[in-house]
Write a structure and sequence with these properties.
Two copies of one chain form a homodimer. The first copy, chain A, has 291 residues and is an alpha+beta fold. Chain A has helices spanning 53-66, 79-86, 90-102, 121-128, 156-162, 201-205, 211-219, 237-243; strands at residues 106-109, 113-116, 131-133, 142-152, 169-179, 182-192, 225-234, 250-260, 264-273, 278-284. The first copy, chain A, has a six-stranded antiparallel β-sheet. Strand 10 of chain A pairs antiparallel with strand 7 (225-234) of chain B, so a sheet runs across the interface. Chain A binds a DNA duplex (19 and 19 nucleotides) through helix 3.
Chain lengths: 291, 291
DNA sequence: CAGTGGTCTAGACCACATC
DNA sequence: ATGTGGTCTAGACCACTGG
């Protein structure tokens, strides 16, 4: 781990606290219902006003955050105030916030407040970057922009992942990631042009932080989670050139679909990884603290 | 997903409820302390009697479970009783149980009780088996035992992962996993012989369930979590033969260390996966329910 | 029906951050 | 000193399971 300061470097920025318009979930509005009636999809969807009170509180908060009523980095009203506004007890409110924290939507800081989560190098490294040195050490990659262009979508996998039709306008970004001075990853990102209006090669190249920070600060798109599918392939000429491996060398190909609120896909990315000196790591069930 | 009945097939087995010897964490025993003093390792270890009360309750429960005072599948005393025994409020007790459920140590069933978690096909598939068809469908693999022998450990990676010295006695198991009638995975498992005393090829071949069920029911070893490191390699002669791919074909190699209580390693496994028709999947941050 | 976990409440006090 | 989140309590009521 690089020794990165955890506190904002700009320090002493006063806490911006959002004022929110929230519906009252008063006990009157109680929608009982032990899950919907027979024939209802028992799988995923939930009626908006149903379920336990803390879930409804969670959805209410999620909605105002999703709508951008409080920008990433700003503080929510205090838990006591939120509870009062929503008309629920503090315990119930806290349970709703607990889940939003688990979902990486909110971050709590004791003594300071509860904040809408932001992307930073730290989060990128831990949540979204899974390549590490064979000896187990982790380090932030150096990113090099290789290509940027706007085009019509012609990739069936990308189309399916992004829920677009072939032919729709997309932006394609190619990056090379370097670790310890060696090229290790070749990324090819496909972004729906409609979501990233105004993104230019210049803005991309000059961004100060990670690309997910750029999505968030410039396009109000917060990547919350992602799904990856990996396989081994033989390096083609292009990958071989970018990564400096022989054509035909075994490399890992990782296809990622990044999702925002409501599991809406916002980025499809194909990474080709030279795993000669690095591994793709995967932790099955992270432990909670303090055993 | 295969349509597997969730309820025990043996049904109607009366709930065995464990009687536990638990220490009282009474308010008198309050070990305050905002984390240990200066110079303490701020990283991982925790003093046994320190931290919040719910953590101490958690550790107390963990200890009796770990010691085997209540076998997997048995029910704990009711939450009310546990709270009384430990001398904490029901809310605090529930918080401790919440974490143990998140850690897959306990399972709650409303109306029935809280049970020590067991391994079954379902859990294996979701928590520990990450190979699925390219179209996204999942299916349980068919397992074929290829080899079993006892030997001296001669693999530096395995030694490090299992925290053994080379030369110590280990059991080596080789399996071939088949999906849709095609061989897809070649597993080579290394087990510390000291932990699996009495394991024979026959018992392994005739086990009724998954191998982690066998560890649990026959050797009182519960695999709680695992860490995997993947890379792309060229298939060697042995992998090529077992998987039916050409020598030199790109395949994925996944090295897994499986851990039990206290993060003690109990199995080291190297899987070679033919990713021609299947993917290795990885979900980055699973969402909690009900958004 | 009795017993279990699941939800919800109202309040107290502590630890921490900031001014 | 004030306000924030973190912990803990004691109880009420609901939903579900099993005899």
């Amino acid at each position: 781990m690089a020794s990165v300061a955890m506190r904002p470097l700009v320090a002493a920025a006063p806490v911006r606290r959002a004022a929110l318009r929230l519906p009252a979930l008063g006990v009157g509005a109680r929608a009982v219902g032990p899950a919907a009636g027979p024939g209802a999809a028992a799988d995923a969807e939930v009626a908006p006003g149903s379920g336990p009170l803390y879930r409804r509180a969670k959805r209410a908060l999620l909605q105002v955050i999703e709508q951008g009523a409080c920008a990433p980095g700003t503080a929510l009203p205090s838990e006591a105030e939120l509870a009062r506004t929503l008309g629920v007890s503090i315990g119930t409110l806290r349970r709703a916030v607990d889940e939003l924290v688990a979902d990486h939507v909110l971050v709590r800081h004791q003594g300071r407040g509860t904040f809408v989560a932001t992307h930073d190098a730290e989060r990128f490294l831990f949540q979204f970057f899974h390549v590490e040195r064979a000896d187990g050490r982790r380090e932030s990659p150096q990113v090099e922009l290789l290509a940027f262009h706007r085009q019509r979508l012609d990739d069936a996998d990308a189309a399916e992942a992004l829920r677009l039709r072939e032919g729709e306008a997309v932006l394609v970004v190619e990056n090379r990631l370097t670790l310890q001075g060696r090229p290790v990853v070749h990324d090819r990102l496909v972004l729906p042009a409609a979501l990233f209006r105004g993104l230019t090669e210049k803005r991309l190249a000059e961004r100060p932080g990670t690309i997910y920070q750029l999505y968030q600060s410039e396009f109000a798109i917060t990547v919350l989670r992602a799904a990856e599918r990996a396989r081994a392939i033989a390096a083609d000429r292009s990958a071989a050139r970018v990564l400096g491996v022989p054509v035909g060398a075994p490399v890992m190909q990782v296809r990622r679909t990044a999702l925002t609120f409501g599991d809406k896909p916002v980025e499809y990315r194909v990474s080709v990884v030279n795993t000669a000196r690095h591994d793709y790591v995967h932790v099955l069930s992270r432990p909670s603290r303090g055993n």
